[in-house]
Amino acid sequence: MCYAIPGKVAEISGRVATVDYFGEKRKAYIDLIEDLRIGDNVYAQGGFVIRKIGEEEAKEVLDTWRELFFKLQEQDKKLANNPQSLFERANAIRQKHQGNSCCVHGIIEFSNYCSCNCLYCGIRRDNKDLTRYRMEIPEILAAVGEAVSLGFQALVLQSGEDPYYDDDKFEAIVKEIRARHPVLLFMSIGERSIKAYQRMYNAGARGVLLRFETSNPEVYEKMKPKSPPAPIFQSGGLETRLNLIRTLRELGYLIVTGFLIGLPGQKSADVMKDIKTTASLGAEMFSFGPFVPHTATPLANTPTTDLSKMLKIIARTRIMNPEAKILVTTALETLYGLDGASEALMAGANSLMINVTPKKYRRLYDIYPKRFGSEMETMEHIEKVINLLQSLGRAPTDLNVQT
Ligand code: 5AD
Q: How far apart are CA 148 and CA 251, in angstroms?
């Protein structure tokens, strides 16, 4: 866990530092930072120290935060008090094990080309009506620079499975970003070779977002057709994908994974298995969202999932996984707005993402229609999220907000 405020390194033991935040101690890996010493002021994200800052800067931020830090914690505790219902119990477990920290990652969607033809997805290969785009390295760097200047310290780079970006390009993207910005980088680029992922890790990426979509192999086969013709990177079915996620964890990546809720053929028992599968993959963050129908796909007429069912699944997931980060997905926000997000945060969830893709591309990353945030200015979106979190006594942790 980590706060968007700087902490002080209290101890270093091998690869791990103990970081102190107003008396609360957290552990974080130090391999992204050179020459770290006891007493240094640092930012940590997702369990990694990502940046050292000077004493002056640290003092300034801490002075602004001190009062709010304890006030938010108090309010969060009060709201989690005396749990009765399923949602309240889940929220109390979240409060006890995870405190009031809420990860807020930025997401940049840099290409909507995709060689896969998943039945549920609006950017599937066979959607010929979609205007395709891809960003070159300088454009990606500019988007990352913009996100960092807004305060983001953890970013997800996402695309369809686009063969235009080969292993060299991906390595270069990660290297160039890391040379300029001390951000925690998550790659969400689909099924690539282990070698490609190893190179990105060596270049400084530390997270992967890759959902397995469903743990039911028959539903998986139906939803992700392999032929004809076979997608370029996707070499196998569900087991291949699960094995890739397992290997990425072994390489040292933080894993964000999960599934879709409401796919045709999916049963309630499947969803319970999906939750267990996510846990068994060692996910540091659970990412599962409702399926949203898209008119340009074969599932145009498949209904979506209602909010109360979504909230129950979030609450059960929290009760089964006290230590996990559970994401309020954009799909849930798209269907049920920030009020829905608020209910999800009160039913056990504790992470959010904000779309920081250049606005001209946002609407084109059309995995499902009218995605939340695609018509909003980024600043407006950030303000809405911060207001929501603070109204619930939560502290955004991956966003260096100065309130
Ligand atoms: N509804 C909801 N989520 C979708 N995704 C793709 N298409 C849809 C849809 N129609 C999700 C998939 C994928 C992630 C990037 O977006 O789960 O992993």
A: 26
Omega before 229 within 30 of 0, i.e. cis:
yes
Q: Is 292 in the pocket of ligand 1 (CB under 6 A)?
A: yes
Number of C-beta neighbours around residue 64 at 10 A: 14
Integer CA distances (angstroms), 132 to 28, 77, 129, 166, 360, in order: 40, 47, 9, 18, 12
Ligand 1 centroid distance, CA of 261 (Å): 10
Give the Å distance between the CA of 223 and the centre of ligand 1. 11
Using the CB atoms, write b or e for 255-265: b if 16+ within 10 Å. Answer: bbbbbbbbbee
Secondary structure string (H, E, C) spanning 26-63:
EEEECCCCCCCCCCCEEEEECCEEEEEECHHHHHHHHH
Kindly report the pTM of this predicted structure: 0.95
Cα→Cα distances 234→96, 115, 193, 240, Å: 40, 9, 10, 9
The runs of H, that is alpha helices, within 346-377 are 359-362
Phi first, then psi: give them for residue 179, nearest 5 degrees.
-70, -25
From first to last of its 403 residues, what are the pLDDT tens digits of the chain? 345 789 999 999 999 999 998 888 889 999 999 899 999 999 998 889 999 999 999 999 888 888 888 999 999 999 999 999 999 999 999 999 999 999 999 999 999 999 999 999 999 999 999 999 999 999 999 999 999 999 899 999 999 999 999 999 999 999 999 999 999 999 999 999 999 999 999 999 999 999 999 999 999 999 998 755 555 555 679 999 999 999 999 999 999 999 999 999 999 999 999 999 999 999 999 999 999 999 999 999 999 999 999 999 999 999 999 999 999 999 999 999 999 999 999 999 999 999 999 999 999 999 999 999 999 999 999 999 999 999 999 998 865 554 3
Q: Please report the beta strands in 163-280, taking only residues with DSSP state E, as ranges in sequence order.
A: 184-188, 207-209, 254-257, 260-261
* Closest C-alpha among 293, 364, 385 to residue 131: 364
Q: Ligand 1 within 6 A of 157 CB? A: no
- Which of the listed residues 113, 328, 368, 371 should we mutate to test ligand 1's pocket, taking the one with most ligand atoms within 8 A of CB? 368
Q: 211 in ligand 1 pocket by Cβ < 6 Å? A: yes
Q: Which residue blocks in 237-290 are alpha helix, DSSP H?
A: 238-251, 268-280
